[in-house]
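note to self — DONT lose this again. spent like an hour looking for the file last time. sequence + predicted structure for the chain T wanted, 290 res
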Amino acid sequence: MPLDLGSWQDDLQKSTQSPLSLEQVADYLSGAGGPAVLIDNTSSEDVAEAYAGLLARGIHVVTPNKKGFSGSYDLWRKIFAEAGQSGRGLVYHESTVGAGLPIISTLNDLVETGDEVQKIEGVFSGTMSFLFNSFAPVGGGGGKFSEEVKKAKDLGFTEPDPRDDLNGLDVARKLTILARISGLAVESPTSFPVESLIPQPLESVKTGDEFLARLPEHDDGMDALKKEAEAEGKVIRYVGSINIATKEVKVSLEKFDVSHPIAALQGSDNIVSFYTKRYGSNPLIIQGAG
């Protein structure tokens, strides 16, 4: 029965019908008699693992769920072995990297038109962009690192527990996706170096509130890094990079000249630079809210 858009939440809460299993959903969609699309707005690994089977049955998949594209490399291969084959479904996952920015579609176009992607570098997290643009702005200044983390949380830029942003794994998942599209067989987001900004003594504290309360104890280290960069006429930024030639992928704090596009970011913008044979020394840059 179709849902009434004016009362769907109440209708679902009052319903006594058991939710359909993924297999039942697939049966329903494949028998719909026309083009069928599954929109997965979850972060469920179980749903992601069903993508290949859905595509094999001609069901298209549209999703921001990173699990199917940054999980095991075997799952990635199964999904794209089905996607786009004659009679199979298509998969669209543009928003798994950069939200609404055309990052994945641009990279796919570069690869499919024969360009040679050499390096990808950028700020892939709106949270980390806001945090470091506030902590180490061009021209100097900025508050203590712990103060800026608390401000970012209060403004809604971080997860309820900021450690879920500061551990770098969200950026690592995005790099895994882009590296695979570029032709690197990256096994998982934990298979390459990821610099965590969580002080080791605070990794095991029980709550996000306790983490924020104790973070000022560790401000000196980040202040030293900021001052070191300022003395060189640079700023620090939290970036991800993929070097296709050397097969190196990493997430790390890096220093950038104040004239560099990454240093000049504002607010919570993302920026991604594609260095390719076609574009030479001037990378193709995509920037905006992500």
